[in-house]
Design a protein that fits this description.
Layout: E1 7-10, H1 14-26, E2 30-33, H2 53-59, H3 65-72
Parallel strand pairs: 1-2
Length: about 70
Amino acid sequence: MAVDFRFIVIGRGMMGAAAARHLSSMADGIALIGPREPEERKAHHGVFASHYDEARITRTFDANLAWGTFAAR
């Protein structure tokens, strides 16, 4: 069964989720593609991030220049 989407958003982070949410208020047929965050970190054996997208974005604006520089890498 083929499914047609009007918009496909790649990335489930803060920006992708916001884009998909706002697109869904204007149109039907939105697909959001990307990995989910682990529900149980102790049982998760895949790729792990200490900060997911939204935390990394806010961290780049840290008052401490060193932390902001490290977060941007």
